[in-house]
Amino acid sequence: MKTCFIMLLFLTPGFLSLAGEEAPVLAGEPYVYKEWETFYQQEDGLPNDHIFALKVDGDRLWVGTEGGLALYEDGKWKSWTEEDGLPFNVVSSIAVSEKTGDVWLAMFGGGVARFSGGRFDHYHQLNSGLVNDVVYGITVLGDEVWAATTAGVSSYNFVTGEWEIFTEKNAPMEEIWCYNIDSAGHKVYVAVWGGGILEWDVEKRYWDAHHDPDREMEIDLYRDDGLIHIITTSVSMSEVMWASTYFGLSRYDGRHWRGYTRQDSGLISDFINFADGRGADSCYLSTDLGLAALVDYNTNTWVTYKRDSEDAKNWTAHIMIDNNIIRSVPVHLTLPNHFIICSEFQGNDVWIGTGHGLARGIGKGFYDGLKRKTD
Amino acid sequence: MFWRGVLGGGMVGFLFVFAAVQPNAADRFYVGEKACRECHHNAGHRNQFNVWHRSKHARAYAALAMPESKSIAEISGIDVNPFDSPICLGCHATASDAEEWERDEVFYLQDGIQCEFCHGPGSEYMEDDIMRSPELAMMAGLKMPGEDLCMICHVDKGSHMAVLKTQKFDYEEAMKEIGHPGKGGLIPEKQEEPAALLDGPKYVGVMACAECHQREEQGYVFSRWRLSPHAEAYTVLSTEKAWKIAEERGVEGNPQEAGECLKCHTTGYGEPAGRFMETFDPVMGVQCESCHGPGSEYMPEAVMLDPVAAQQAGLWSVSRETCLKCHPEESQGEPFDYEAAVRKIAHGKSLKEQTSSAIEYKTPFNIVVSRDGRRLYIACEGSDSLIALEAETGEILAEVDVENLPHGVCLSPDEKRIYVSNRGTDTVTVIDAHTFEVIDVFKTGDEPHQMATSADGGRLYVANAGSYDVSIFDVKTGEEIKRLSAGRGAWGAVRSPDGESIYVTNNLSHFVKFRAPSLSEVTVIETGRDYIDRRIFIPGANLVQGIDISPDGEFALATLVRTKNLVPMTRVIQGWVMINALGVLWKDGRVDQLPLDELDNGFADPTDVKITPNGKYAYITGGGINAVAVLDIEKMLSVLSHASEEERKTVLPNHLGVPTEYILKRIQVGVGPRGLAVSPDSRFVYVADALEDSVSVIDVQRQERVKVFDLGGPKEITLARKGERIFHSADITYGTQFSCHSCHPDGGIDGITYDIEPDGIGINPVDNRTLRGILDTAPFKWEGTNPSLSRQCGPRLAVFFTRIDPFTPEQVKALDHYICTIPRNPNRYRVGDELTPAQRRGKEIFERTMDNAGNSIPKENQCAFCHPAPYFTRRLVFDVRSSSHLDTNRDFDIPHLNNIYETAPYLHDGRAETLEEIWTTFNPNDTHGVTNDMTKDELKDLIEYLKTL
Q1: Are B496 and B549 in contact (CB under 8 A)?
Q2: Cα B670 to the chain's mean position, in Å?
Q3: Is beta strand A370-371 parallel, antiparallel or unpaired with respect to B330-331?
Q4: Per-residue confidence at A214, pLDDT binned at 50, 70, 90?
Q5: Is the entire prediction scored with pTM above 0.95?
Q6: Residues of B with CB under 8 A from a CB of A
Q7: Distances (CA, A) of B315 to B203, B288, B302
Q8: Are B570 and B800 in contact (CB under 8 A)?
Q9: Does A151 reach chain B within 8 Å, measured CB to CB?
């Protein structure tokens, strides 16, 4: 029992300070989102408060919910449900084509839709080359839209009309349950639940696979030897690759891997739903227990936002180095649900979507990284 | 017996052999008649080669060079050389739709219909140990065809019957003609290694010559040779007559083995083996090199282009003496007439020169006027040209060749460039407006129609009717910077006066729920970001084509048709099939619709609209009634402002009593008016009279046609032109409500499902079908009850469609003739010989005979059985269980699949919006092909292949 208690201490954030050891010193002050706006169901204009997807489109924000699509623009909400022509109410992912301005929707059980000039075009497994209607993720790269589905990946060239399907037959998919998808440059990245991260080079038409060298081990045997776990839940390309799993976070700069878990970082939980890279040094993680933001890669400085107890009304931001809480800051965030599903940056602001409500952190005076005294 | 021994080895042995001869169909390839000949050229036993080589089948490819072939192509809507037409090649060559890798090196398309056309690609069954067992051979892919196969090509073809006066195909008689039984005898041993080649000129064989000498510009030399007795000089030795002559001359045995015969019946006989290249084939008879000498040294193109060099390299000069070597002055009592013989085999003159007699009309489609009002530019679809006219006098300043089927024309804002869209080649031709030189060609989406530029001229917006989108070009670089999704059938385009928007009309309705009214779209593009700004939906309308915007930008006018396709067409006598109308699209998104028809006085086929710069009038072309309507804008606005909301929504769109309030006049113009333009000073309106090769000039003040500019087209009116005029005329319909063109714009489809017969509301709905390239796809009508176009367009048309006196026989003849000549678009999914990997996999599925579980698919349920090349229809009616509760019929015509991708929706009643839905939704019991065993990617591959047909 005593051993267990000691083990628990080691696993608890803030262990060093509890043990009386010298706490690490902040190399600079991280930015903390103190002011937040919250939005719930009809009273705030959302069609539903189960927020599955967020996508910034210039000054606008598209929101995918369990009960429809919403748009936040100029401080006003507009929404679409099946009654308004939305092909399926459960919007699980959103992408915007910079080239055409069209909005592409992944629908959980409803296929894919293009929303263009007020018109919804519906592509599903019965009327198109979409491999499956359970679509988790969507991204647009050039003239192609890519959909991550529960049965593989489909791409659709909206100029030529050609569909392509990738499954275990023609891609190194150990599983075909594709959970999330992102694109950058001329590559598409797929987070496969149980299959790591797959990387498709559109120009060379070549797949590369990133797996966990420890395979299905749920501990990381050799630190930073590769992806932290093959059950990946999202991938975010922002100068480097950020990949979330249900067992921690991985960062890959093309040569080196770096893994993060609760033991050595400000992650509130290793159960990460979504990773949102903010450059090579910063990433915001949507976890089941709140929002964890790595704000400075070099010093491993984090700011985590969570409710400190189940009955706490306000959230607290904890400034952390490694897994040590350096300081706690109360913030004006009152979301009742800390199961965060998605996040999105809009300029200096950050949006988070949860199982019950949407919130925006107002980034007044926001800065990247750490503000040092000499700054 | 070999195969008995194998079977005697027990099941293991059988399975081993089965596996060995059960190759993947995808691995099969065509080996060519030469490989078959190795065993099947055995006099007295397997004499099949001689029989085939002297048959029409062997000459089928060469026959495409005959003038008759061109005539057949012309009346079949095939606007390319027959040698380049998949349709022609499909029945005149073997494996013409195969990829290059599927043809062995010694396989030649020039061999026409050869063994493997009927017996399947031979690579896996050709070995003699397999061929000794019919069972094993068939397992390995050998087909033993029956009447089914012959009828794919020999079913009645109106085109061939009209030109060749052929009789109905008699299968029994045909089999007697081509019958080639025979078996037994020794299997010849494999040929020895080829002899070492000697120095000096060597024989290369006719197929090497044919690589260059099959071209049209060279007069189809190969074809002319192949159709001559020279080509069959060797195989003729197998005939009874040849044996008799040989016997009379003391030749013993087989003439094909007798030197005395072979020296004049083959090429290079008596030369040592080292004088023959591997490409040389002695059975090809008297080949090019018999007269021109062994060709190895002079055959390179660079040498042949220089007559002196060619002669120095061994090219013989041909003279009387050349012929006399084998054609003595008198033979078998007949004198040899050298001049006649030379004429008979002449092969230097282009057949094109001999046969070109096609009349080419101008067919002006769209027109634009320069800012100073002095010049008109007209896109002429018939002559593939742009004509520049002096606006005052009609003097033709220039005619510039563009590409195939030019449609739209527009000017850059600085008027230095003229843009012409070519819907037949998916391009925009860019012409210098001063020099009239073509300075660039932009590649667009499918079937580009109208265009507009941005206000600064930096962008060109092209409405692509075939790919349902808008191409946006950077005109400096010619780069297509993006493609935006339009509605279906993007057609017209115009820039708003403030320059901030481009309005694009769409010819086809969106897909709507089964038995629901049409819903059309006008797409509005924001020019700043080049994004779709909004989509204006017009309920109950389709065929939205022409568009213009009022000078103040408050509203746009768009031509449209309100087709009442959900009630029987026979209700035309109640004025209840089509209302030809105008859409008023307000800046705030509101849409009004106002009819152009009057009671029993329809304004069929409104095609284009232009508002005068002073905003007083709008002019609308009525293509079906050869008239232009003059609309008073102020009166139109007054009608709208005095109507209640409810009246504007439900009454005015269908009220044939109101047009007299805002239509001042209908001005008669030339035949088939299409596009129009208004002079910048609002004084004149110019109208492209498409079917009269002229431009009508209307004086706005007098509201009269005051001039007609002749564009210089031929004055003779051909049968096809007569038919074209009938096709576009609403005189054939009760109250001039519509023409053939109304439902088949430019011979295509309007994309909606009709209720035609008076058998109850909604009963037996049928999807509209394209008329492009349909001549040899009878029967017609979805029920397949009309065996010919003349039946389809004859009295039946009057009974079910027009409700007026039927066409005269002369009219029917002309109309049918025209319809047959409407060309099919080039296929956009098959570029060149190669298929993509997905298309290749799809082809394998299309041709499969077993399902994924290894079960045989009944022949009648295999894709390729009902849909065989080249038309991909067996031309029968068939029940694939696609009928719905609204159908009283279960059997439907098997549709042809050429360019199937451009004729959505699908099935007889248009219920399937996409090709996928045919099988994912409407084939639950595998009655329309076995498809439910397929994985999603397999079905996708199949569809990728179908698009290439």
Answers
A1: yes
A2: 30
A3: unpaired
A4: confident
A5: no
A6: 445, 467, 469, 482-485, 521, 523-524, 529, 531-535, 838, 913-914, 916-917, 920-921, 936-937, 940, 943-944
A7: 12, 11, 13
A8: yes
A9: yes
- Using CB atoms, pick whichever of B467, B524, B937 lies closest to residue A169: B937
Q: Is A373 left (phi over 0), alpha (psi -120 to 50) or beta?
A: alpha
pLDDT band at B162 (very low <50, low <70, confident <90, very high): confident
Note the pLDDT tens digit of each residue in B691-713.
Answer: 999 999 999 999 999 999 999 99
pLDDT of residue B318: 87
Interface test with B, best of A163, A167, A173 (most B CBs within 10 A): A163
Taking Cα atoms as reference points, which of B881, B883, B863 lies closest to residue B873?
A: B863
User: What was the pLDDT predicted at A189?
Assistant: 98
pLDDT digit string (tens) for B490-517? 999 999 999 999 999 999 999 999 999 9
pLDDT in tens, B306-318: 989 999 999 998 8
- The pair of structure tokens assigned to B855 is 């079960």
> How do residues B389-403 score in pLDDT, each as one tens digit?
999 999 999 999 999
Chain-chain contact of B529 with A126 (C-beta, under 8 angstroms): no
Q: Which helix (H) or strand (E) segment is B520 a member of?
A: strand B519-526
Beta strand A135-141 with A144-149 is: antiparallel
Question: Which residue's structure tokens are 């052999």?
Answer: B17
Task: State how far the Cα of A62 lies from the Cα of A51, in Å rounded to an integer.
Answer: 11
Q: How far apart are CA B357 and CA B325, in angstroms?
A: 39
| Interface ipTM | 0.89
User: B808, B797 in Cβ contact below 8 A?
Assistant: no
Confidence of residue B800 (pLDDT cuts 50, 70, 90): confident
Q: Do A90 and A108 touch, CB atoms closer than 8 A?
A: yes
User: What is the phi-psi region of residue A68: left when phi exceeds 0, alpha when psi lies from -120 to 50, beta otherwise?
Assistant: left
For chain B, list the domains and their CATH numbers: 27-178 (1.10.1130.10), 206-354 (1.10.1130.10), 364-722 (2.130.10.10), 837-946 (1.10.760.10)
The first and second tokens of residue B118, run together, are 């009927």
> What is the C-alpha separation between B866 and B855, in angstroms, rounded?
19
**Residue bearing tokens 């079917």:** B691
> Angle B123-B124-B126 (CA atoms, 0-180°, nearest 5)?
70
CA dist A104 and A88 (Å) reads: 13
